[in-house]
């Protein structure tokens, strides 16, 4: 049976998600929580991160981001601090408890990316990434 692009993309994404979730469970998180911690750890310290940045980065709805961040806060992995200029905005920061997890999450992401590059090759991996980013912008 010939598979169309959308189905192939969905199957690949499901495989990625299952792999991320499987690893994240070993450190007591969901895959989404883990990649958000990894994202927060990759942001330069002088750059402030707000919920809207996470919504944009992961293309998720406000309610989804709120629920994920609430759980991360309950697990003492993030802290929220009111912005000095706009009290409606809450800066999101990793806690010291998240430091060990961020190393594990970053190492997992690095291994996962290396695995994809081994399978597809560096050039094709870059081309697919660019094509997916273009689809995300255009659709």
Write the element-wise H/E pattern from the N-terminal end onward: HHHHEEHH
Give the helix proportion (percent range): 55-70%
* Average pLDDT metric: 92
Number of helices: 6
Annotation, overall tally of beta strands: 2
Q: Give the overall silhouette.
A: globular
For the terminal residues, how far apart are their CA atoms?
Answer: 27 Å
User: Biggest β-sheet: count, sense, barrel?
Assistant: 2 strands, antiparallel
Question: What is the strand arrangement across the widest sheet?
Answer: 1-2
Low-confidence stretches: none
Strand content: 5-15%
The value of Rg in angstroms is: 17 Å
- Which structural class is indicated by helix and strand composition? mainly alpha
């Amino acid at each position: 049976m010939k598979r169309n692009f959308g189905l192939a993309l969905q199957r690949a994404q499901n495989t990625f998600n299952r792999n991320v979730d499987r690893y994240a469970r070993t450190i007591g998180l969901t895959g989404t929580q883990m990649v958000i911690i990894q994202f927060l750890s990759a942001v330069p310290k002088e750059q402030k991160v707000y919920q809207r940045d996470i919504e944009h980065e992961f293309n998720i709805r406000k309610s989804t981001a709120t629920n994920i961040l609430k759980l991360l806060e309950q697990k003492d992995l993030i802290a929220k601090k009111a912005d000095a200029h706009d009290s409606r905005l809450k800066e999101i920061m990793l806690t010291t408890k998240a430091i060990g997890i961020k190393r594990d999450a970053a190492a997992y992401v690095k291994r996962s990316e290396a695995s994809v590059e081994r399978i597809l090759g560096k050039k094709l991996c870059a081309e697919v990434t660019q094509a997916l980013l273009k689809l995300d912008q255009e659709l």
